[in-house]
Amino acid sequence: MRRALALSIPLLLLSAACTYDNGDVQHVLADPGSPIECRTETQSTIDTDRTIGIDAGQGAGVYIEYAAGGHWHVRTSCDSGKGSTGCNWDVLVYAPDGHSLSNFVPEDLEAEDSLGPYNQSQATYELSAHTTTDLDGFTFDGDPGVAATVDAFLDNTCALPYFFWVGDGALHPGSPSNPLTLTPSSD
Asked: Is residue 71 a part of any domain in this protein?
C-alpha cells in the first residue's frame, strides 16, 4: 500500500497543471514537468513594417506585426480546416513600465468575442476570441520604438508554439517562453 501511494503522489503532481491568477481570470499553464517555460519572459526583436501572410482556417497561431510609428497588429487563427471546432484564444498585451498602449481597435470579432481592459493598474488589454475559419484580431498603438509584451493562451493552455512574428529577417514559429516581449528593430 505504501509503495502504491508513494508512486501515485508524484504522478498526481506531474499531471496537475500550474496556474496563475490575476484576480479575475485564472489561466492554466503547462504541466510542471514539461520543458515548456510559461511565465518566464523572453525578449526578441520584431522587424518594423514586415507583415505575415495568413491563410485563415489553415493553422493555429497568434500573429504579431509592428509598423513604424508605434502601430501594432495582432491576429489569431485556427486550424479549423483540419476538422477542429475552433480555438479559444486569450491574448494579453501590455507595455513596459513607464509606457502605455492606446487606440485598441477590434478587428473581425464576432458577438462572443471581446477586447477590453484586463487590469487597469498595469494597462493590460485582453482579447478573448473563439476563432474558427476566420481571423480575429486587433490593432493598438504604443510609444514608437518601444516594446510590447504578448501573453497568449490557446484553450486555456500556454500557447508557446503558436506565436508568429518576423524578427531579424526571419519568420519565428513559436516562442521559447510565454510571455514574449517584442522590441521593434527600428522606427
From this structure: yes
- CATH label of the domain that carries residue 81: 2.60.40.1170
Asked whether residue 68 is domain-assigned, the answer is yes
Please give the single-letter amino acid code of residue 125.
Y
Counting DSSP H helices and E strands in the chain, the numbers are 1, 15
Mean pLDDT of 47-72: 94
Give the Å distances, CA to CA, from 114 to 80, 110, 127: 20, 8, 6
Confidence of residue 178 (pLDDT cuts 50, 70, 90): confident
pTM of the entire structure? 0.78
Written as nine digits, the cell of 75 is: 491576429
The total of structural domains in the chain comes to: 1
Domain presence at residue 2 = no
Kindly state whether residue 152 falls inside one of the protein's structural domains. Answer: yes
Structural domain harbouring 69: 33-184
Contacts of residue 88, defined as CB under 8 A and 6 or more positions apart, other chains included, come to 128, 129, 130, 154, 155, 156
Predicted confidence (pLDDT) per residue in 80-104, tens digit: 766 668 899 999 999 988 888 999 9
CA atoms within 13 A on the CB side of 180: 27
